[in-house]
Amino acid sequence: MRDYWLSKLFYEVQSNAAEYRADRAKFIARYPLRPEVKDALLRDDVAFLARRVNPYLLRFYFGAAGMKDDEFIRRLRAAGPTAGAAHG
Predict the structure, then answer these.
(1) Across all residues in the chain, what is the average pLDDT?
(2) Are 52 and 2 in contact (CB under 8 A)?
(3) Rounded to an integer, what distance in angstroms lies between the CA atom of residue 12 and that of residue 43?
(4) Alpha carbon of residue 60 to chain centroid
(5) Residue 22 half-sphere exposure, CB side, CA atoms within 13 Å?
(6) pTM of the model
(7) Taking 90 as the threshold, does the pLDDT of residue 88 lie above it?
(8) 80 in the Ramachandran plot: left (φ > 0), alpha (ψ -120 to 50) or beta?
(9) Where are the alpha helices (DSSP H) in 1-88?
(10) Counting beta carbons within 10 angstroms of the beta carbon of residue 45, is it exposed (0 to 12), middle (13 to 18) or buried (19 or more)?
(11) What is the 3-state secondary structure (H, E, C) of 12-33?
(12) Confidence at residue 36, expressed as pLDDT on a 0 to 100 scale
């Protein structure tokens, strides 16, 4: 299931990446996200977040957040084939 507020946060990080990286918790607090989603953002939990957003937003978000592409791919592969299965 896609999470509207998480998707909105990911979209807005595109134009506010420096602000996001400077104080992630403060930026995240602007959005009415469930506690487990906030925790996943702060932990860079690719597998958890992949089930909740568009894959293009997911990849861009992690790049903007400072994660190297090879690390993002490694974590996504480690999550297994069901990481993005809830998209629809």
Answers:
(1) 90
(2) yes
(3) 19
(4) 9
(5) 4
(6) 0.83
(7) no
(8) left
(9) 4-13, 17-22, 24-28, 35-43, 46-50, 55-64, 69-79
(10) middle
(11) HHCCCHHHHHHCHHHHHCCCCC
(12) 97
User: How far is 25 from 41, CA to CA, in rounded Å?
Assistant: 9
Cβ atoms 6, 53 nearer than 8 A? yes
Residues in the chain: 88
| CA distances, 88 to each of 22, 33, 44, 49, 51 (Å) | 33, 20, 23, 15, 10
Gap between the Cα atoms of 13 and 27, Å rounded: 9
Q: Which two tokens stand for residue 7?
A: 């998707």
Q: What is each CA distance from 58 to 15, 84, in whole angstroms?
A: 15, 10
